[in-house]
Amino acid sequence: MMTRITLRVPLLPRWFRWSVVVSVAGLIFYASILTVPPETALDTRPDLIPLDKWRHFIAYAALGNSLAYATTDWNIETRRLAAAVLSVTILYGVGIEFGQSLTPERYFSIGDIYANLLGGVLVLPYYVVQPHLQLVSVSEFV
Questions:
Q1: Which of 25, 93, 126, 141 is the right S-S partner for 116, CB 3.0 to 4.6 Å?
Q2: Spacing of C-alpha 95 from chain mean position
Q3: Per the confidence metrics, is the pTM higher than 0.85?
Q4: What are phi and psi of 25, to 5 degrees?
């Protein structure tokens, strides 16, 4: 018989968790719609994945995981919750790309959508590990 390993993890207050989600989404919106990041040498080297794709990948991994943690106490089947979080993350990325197509000096990019999608998929390991986490309020954690 295998012993199930559980790790105690603090569950931060709901308002804080959602503030992080809004902050990450807001930062993505700001960097994608309101500003144009400068092109770097890493964006133009043909032998590397452009830095811009890495930015998308990391940003959407952060968005998906912050959203997963914010919804971790919802009483919804794990598969459905994972699908919903992944869907919202991907739809936000697609929406941002459409918004960029309407913004001067920006453009719609399928490559960026793929980078967003791959970053968003990084939320799935959270749902594999989650059954092994015992989420406790911060006051009980200390």
A1: 93
A2: 14
A3: yes
A4: -60, -40
